[in-house]
């Protein structure tokens, strides 16, 4: 049995299509709204509607929101190419390879950091939801680089707080199309789910605060290598911010990258790597900084574009 919501149609939604109105009222995608309507989980004035019906202010909506499906348990298997940069009783810092999600989610069938660590016999904190125990921050599945996982319960609590309070330094290297103007700057633009409901995120008025600082390390003919520091940790933040300026990460087809340039450089994912992660050790208080080497595909593409520039 899902959550029951009953409310009158507000005047601001007069004349809106039902699926669009549900999306605005409850914050889920148009696709999910259409699925609820098709499943008979939405009534308008007690009658079963069509998703394209136009609403009138004051009509009564009854909506049953089913509980989200439970994420699968992590697959316990060591992950080739996932190297350990540091480990002690409280934390483990890894260099995450591409194609690996942080933890299991609905719809993801590939390997996860959590499953890889547990499968290789590492102890991980049991704090947090079962499918994301020990995970205090995430990298996108196809973003590589430095990531910390909590092993003790104390480390989990303190690291979660440190990330929330922006006391963790997160630096990335990104290869973007074209040249940044200015060469260094700050992008301060709110981010939320893209209105299309297709899994993308976008700069959206009224979204969550997102701040990205960038500096050009080197400009090549068709692309630039950037050093990026983020203050906030929104989903897809760097990818969305750079794409919004017209400079998507090379190979980031979700956010408008040029397939020709990506193919020339041998890149089939976003060129984005978490190069440095620095934070206060959650138990000893010591300031620690970890640097993750580029994976082979990014190092190879950088050589190709550098040789071209020579």
Could you give me the name of the CATH homologous superfamily of the largest domain?
Pseudouridine synthase
Measured between the Cα atoms of the first and last residue, the distance is 64 Å
Number of helices: 7
How many individual domains? 3
Helix content: 10-25%
Write the CATH fold name of the largest domain: Pseudouridine synthase
Largest sheet: 9 strands, mixed
Averaging pLDDT over every residue, what do you get?
A: 92
Number of strands: 14
Helix-strand string: EHHEEEEHEHEEEEEEHHEEH
**What is the strand content?**
25-35%
Which architecture of the largest domain would the CATH scheme give at its second level? Answer: 2-Layer Sandwich
CATH class of the largest domain: Alpha Beta
Shape label: globular
Q: What value does the Rg take, in angstroms?
A: 22 Å
Unreliable spans: none
> What is the SS-derived class?
alpha+beta
Organism: Thermobispora bispora (strain ATCC 19993 / DSM 43833 / CBS 139.67 / JCM 10125 / KCTC 9307 / NBRC 14880 / R51)
Domain RNA-binding S4: 16-59
Domain Pseudouridine synthase RsuA/RluA-like: 90-244
Pfam family, one: S4
